[in-house]
Amino acid sequence: MSGATEARTRKVALIGWGAIGRTVGGALAAGEVPGAELAGIVDNRPLGDAVPAPQLTVEQALAACDLIVEAAGQGVVREWGETILASGTDLLVASTGALTDEELSKRLLAAGPGRVYFTGGAVGGLDLLQAVRAMGPLGEVTLTTTKLPSTLEQPWMDEATLARLRSTTTPVEVMSGTARDVPVKFPRSTNVAASVALAVGDLDAVRVRVVADPAAAHTSHVIEASGPQGAYRFEVRHVPDAANPATSRVVPYAVLRSLAALTGRRGQIL
User: Fold this and answer.
1) CA nearest 255: which of 91, 133, 112, 130?
2) Which residue among 66, 86, 109, 131 has its CA within the 20 to 30 Å range from the CA of 77?
3) Contact 86, 110 (CB under 8 A)
């Protein structure tokens, strides 16, 4: 009798069929993630026959799948995160900005028997920051995010702020604060801030600046961290997604990389 065991195929449901979900779902349907099968798509709009898997409700997805990928925004994490995990289904979160709600974050990390995972999204270096954190707290961590002004407009902004965004010809700071408060104000643009805070282990330790630059051909994120352990600087410059310029084109591929790690693809850097 052979000692080898057959690898288990993870049945995956996607919540969200937008810029991220379409790329992730297309790759899953094409068999590009060994060990993962797209079993369903959850979306609050009728999707018709153009999608590569059945459209399901969240309840149907929980019955049919053992892994759900959130690609629809922070509201989904708040509304369904604990329910998904309590059902025994694993959850991969793309909208890490939801974790700025510290009580929600604690509940998700304590929930089960399903397991919660987070993708790094549009930024790198988080694995190293987590390793450094094990040596002790960092003294200073900053994140500067720069995007096109149009992607940073928010419903809470007054007319003066909107006029300044729309008329600026040079880079202008839109907001500064901590990773606890900035992502709440920019729910589609600053998931990176929450991801850095997750790696560092402290929402209040990460200082965040959001900058609007009308000449920004790329979305940029600059992370700087220092302490007794050393000094670290990571800078990424991404092409925005054509369908949703508020996010970077790389994000769905970061989700796919996380999925490949969860399904056991060899050669992954963990």
Assistant:
1) 91
2) 131
3) no
Looking up tokens 């709600």 gives 101
Cα-to-chain-centroid distance, residue 141: 20
Give the contacts of 89 (CB within 8 A, at least 6 positions apart). 61, 62, 65, 66, 67, 68, 114
Number of Cβ atoms within 10 Å of the Cβ of 249? 18
- Please name the residue that has the structure tokens 């900035």: 182
218 is written with which tokens? 């790329």
- Tens of pLDDT, residue by residue over 190-207, are 788 888 988 888 889 999
> Who has greater pLDDT, 166 or 243?
166
Encode 187-210: b = buried (16+ Cβ within 10 Å), e = exposed: bbbbbbbbbbbbbbeebebbbbbb
DSSP secondary structure of 227-255: ETTEEEEEEEEEPBPSS-TTSBTTHHHHH
Using the predicted structure, report yes or no on whether residue 269 has a pLDDT greater than 60: yes
- Mention every residue, 6+ apart, whose C-beta is less than 8 A from residue 1: none
Binding site, annotated residues for NAD(+): 122, 191
Q: Residue 119 is encoded by which pair of tokens?
A: 């993708």
Binding region:
122, 191
- Annotated catalytic sites, by residue? 221
